[in-house]
Every structure is written in structure tokens, then in C-alpha cells.
Amino acid sequence: MKIKAAVLRESGRPRPYAASLPLGIEEVELDPPSKGEVLVQIKAVGLCHSDLSAISGERARPLPMVIAHEASGIVAEVGPDVEGLAPGDHVVAAFVASCGQCDLCREGRPTLCPIAGAANMAGMLVDGTTRLHSGGNRIHHHSGVAAFADYAVISQKALVKIDPNVPFQQAALFGCAVITGVGAVINTAHVSPGQSVAVVGLGGVGLSSVMAARASGAGKVIAVDIQERKLELAGELGAREAFNATDADCVAKIRLATGGGVHFAVETAGSPRALETAFEITRRGGMTVTAGMPGPEATITLPHFTLAGEERCLKGSYMGSCVASRDIPRYINLFQDGRLPVDRLMSRSLAFEELNEAFDRLADANTVREVLVL
Predict the structure, then answer these.
(1) Is there a single domain that holds both residue 110 and residue 130?
(2) pLDDT tens profile 101-142
(3) If DSSP codes are grouped into helix, strand and coil, which group holds residue 216?
(4) Taking the CB of residue 323, how many other CB atoms lie within 10 A of it?
(5) For the segment 24-43, what is each residue's pLDDT rounded down to a tens digit?
(6) Which of 84, 191, 243, 305 is 20 to 30 A distant from 124 in Cα terms?
């Protein structure tokens, strides 16, 4: 079938993207779903920094590619051997189609599935092929989803059926921003009531972490960012105190306000300096969690003595250490109960023709979550 899609054919074009137009709106061919795959009519797609990193070239991707991975939609058709999904079902896409058979999947860590990870790096579906092409040439799938399109073929293992009463625009955010930010607090850090939490970096993921810390009963939630507008929003979402990271005394002020540092500091900015700040504001015996995803060349410098001498823990969190089929419905329940006001993350809705301009705003950190609505 022929579909409309935003195709990235060249990374690293100069800013502003509104002028250089890295994303071209094209008509491309989409093959029908194969074994274990589902054709999804895409209804809403959140713009994520991982999409931006493909456009900028910060994280190289095989090209050409239909990018975007944070999506919701309606099942239009199911391929052979698909179980648990039927046409008309509302779904959220998770960007790791875990195999369910490897050691990591069996250990309850499906986000680290090496088979799914290799497929995502290659821009393929989990069977090592693609369903997208144009003029006889292959087009790659971003993170197994390729959501900047009106239809997508996605592995059933990457789809989670949801309550059809959830609006598509909010539902899409659960596929990345929410599952990553909430999961970093609940699954990776295991925050308990009364413990203190700082979140460094207040994009969609970071603000989700703020909401999760509040919902978990954290005793004190601290927000850290470089933009006052985002700090104000974090306060509205549950942060008790906010600190601007551009203040030379930011770390000292946070340590003073928390009696030596927080129990948990969650870094979501994807910046080495942000992670170092998060480590510096973590208390003795505490945990620093990093959910940010910088380019592969980014490095950090941390004091070796402090790690051992203060029994500190530095832990990574990918996709919120989540089991998507378990956690996305749970987090949606929290949203429906009013404990995760995910709708507050949405900055604006977009049409296809506005995508390049929207990525300028994302690159300038002048937005939280913008959503393509189809």
C-alpha cells in the first residue's frame, strides 16, 4: 500500500531545520504485515530527542529512514500467528520488540534484549528485513516503529493494547517519555515513600520522573534545569524545590537544602555535565540513575574514591527498566486516576508540514512534548 511518511535521507543538515528541511514528506510503499506483525494506523506521535539525534547525526542511523518511535494508533490488520490483537484495538508502540527467549528477556529485563537491540541499530524489524521502500530502494524503520507515517507495520511484541478511552495524543507519550521517566523512578531506583529525589533535566522524560516521584510518595522532590519555565512546570507537577543549573552554586544549594544530598538523583538530559551534577547532589549511600541518551562518544569523569568510600551507586536505566506489556497499562491507570497528569507534558499538536520547524524548538529546548496528530 502507498502511505504518507516523513523520510530522513541525510543527517547533519544545518540549522534551522525549517530552512534545510531534513525531513521530506513523501509517498512510499509499505508492504503488508508478515508473520507476527501488525499493520497499525498511526494516530499520534510524540517528538523525542532520540528522533532529533537521528536528524542531527549525533547518533548515526542507517538511511534513508522513517523516524519516530513514540506512537499510538489503531490496529488495521494482523499478520499470520498474531495473538491477542485484532482490528480496531487501540495500541501504544514500545520501541523494543523483545524476543522473550534470550537470557535477559527470561530474567525480566526485556528492554536489554540483544536481538531487538541489533534490529533497532540496523533499522530493521526483528526478522532482519524492512517493509518500507521507494522506487525499489529499501527505507529503514526507526526503532522498529517508523511512526512518522499514516500507517506502520510493527512487531506484535512491540505493541501494547490499551483502554480505548485514552486520547491518542496522551497515549502516544506512554511509549517513550512516560515509560522511561516513570520507570526510572519506580523500576530502576525503587523509590520508597519519604525518600528524596532530584531530577536533572526537565524534558518529557524528566517531568515524567517528577510526576512518578510525587506519585511514589517521595518526601522531597527537587527539580533541576537551565530554563525557568520548565522549573515552574516541575513545581506544578510536584517538585517541592527547583534549582537552576546555570547557578554556579547550584550543587552546594541542593546539598544544603537536603542535608548532604538526595537519596536518588535521576538524570534525563543526555548531557555529561548533567550526569555529573546528578552524581554531585546524591547523598552518601545514595543512587544516581541515568536515563539520558547522549551520542556514543560522550564520556563522564567521576571520583573513583567517592564511589567506594561513600558506597554510592551509579545505574543506567533504558526505557525505564520496564516490561512494556506490564507497565504501560499500569501507568495509564495512574493517568486515569489523576496521579500522572501526562496531559500537562503536551506543548502543542502538529501536522506533517510542521515537523522540521518543531525539531528546531526541540533542539533549542524550547518545548516539552509536541505531538504529530494524524
Answers:
(1) yes
(2) 999 999 999 999 999 999 999 999 999 999 999 999 999 999
(3) coil
(4) 20
(5) 999 999 999 999 999 999 99
(6) 84
CATH code: domain of residue 230: 3.40.50.720
Residues 72 and 55 in one domain: yes
C-alpha cell read off for 343:
496531559
State CA 327 to chain mean position distance: 14
Query: Cell 528522533 sits at which residue?
Result: 51
**CATH number of the domain residue 45 falls in:** 3.90.180.10
Is residue 117 located within the same domain as residue 247?
no
Q: What are the CA-CA distances from residue 309 to residues 121, 253, 255, 278 (Å)?
A: 38, 23, 18, 18
Examine the domain organization and report whether 164 and 231 are in the same domain. no
Expressed as residue numbers, the domain containing 36 is 2-175+341-373
- Which residues is 154 bridged to in the sheet? 38
pLDDT band per the 50, 70, 90 thresholds, residue 366? confident
Residue the block writes with cell 534525563: 268
Residue 340, phi then psi, degrees to nearest 5: -130, 90
Q: How many domains in the chain? A: 2
Query: How does strand 70-78 pair with strand 90-93?
Result: antiparallel
Torsion of CA 130, 136, 137, 141, to 10 degrees: -30
Residue 350 and residue 231 share a domain = no
3-state secondary structure of 281: coil
d(CA 131, CA 78): 14
- Do 132 and 7 belong together in one domain? yes
Nearest CA-CA partner of 349 in 367, 363, 336: 367
